[in-house]
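Please fill in the sequence for the structure shown.

STRUCTURE ENCODING:
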């Protein structure tokens, strides 16, 4: 199975590179040359059983599999978010699901935030969110 560093994929330009920059603020992500992308075939076991799975990430190996390449922008951001350490494990999917949309929106507008968007979950207490909504 051939693995390719993210930095060497021809589609890792434009918005994909901007999404990466949004998520790597404060050095939250490894260098793109240290992230390995697996080919679409063969599918990982979970993805073979469930065709709705569009990506899989193995944080400890810094490897990502996408069903399609290039992947959907949201799927790309979602799987990159799984590489970020320091999040509560039980909220892993919450981070990836919610922040992937924000990352893509910022990248589409050419905005790289001054602080990591992951802080929205790690540095903000529920009470702060409720108070802001009020």
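FILLED IN BY: designer on duty
SEQUENCE:
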């Amino acid at each position: 199975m051939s693995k390719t560093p993210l930095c060497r994929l021809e589609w890792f330009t434009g918005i994909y590179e901007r999404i990466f920059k949004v998520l790597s603020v404060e050095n939250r992500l490894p260098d793109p040359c240290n992230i390995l992308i697996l080919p679409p075939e063969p599918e990982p076991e979970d993805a073979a059983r469930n065709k709705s799975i569009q990506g899989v990430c193995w944080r400890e190996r810094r490897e990502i599999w996408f069903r399609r390449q290039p992947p959907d922008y949201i799927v790309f951001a979602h799987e990159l978010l799984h590489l970020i350490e320091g999040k509560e494990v039980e909220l892993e999917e919450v981070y990836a699901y919610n922040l992937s949309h924000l990352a893509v929106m910022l990248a589409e507008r050419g905005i790289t935030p001054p602080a990591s968007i992951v802080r929205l979950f790690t540095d903000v207490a529920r009470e702060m969110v409720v108070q802001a909504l009020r």
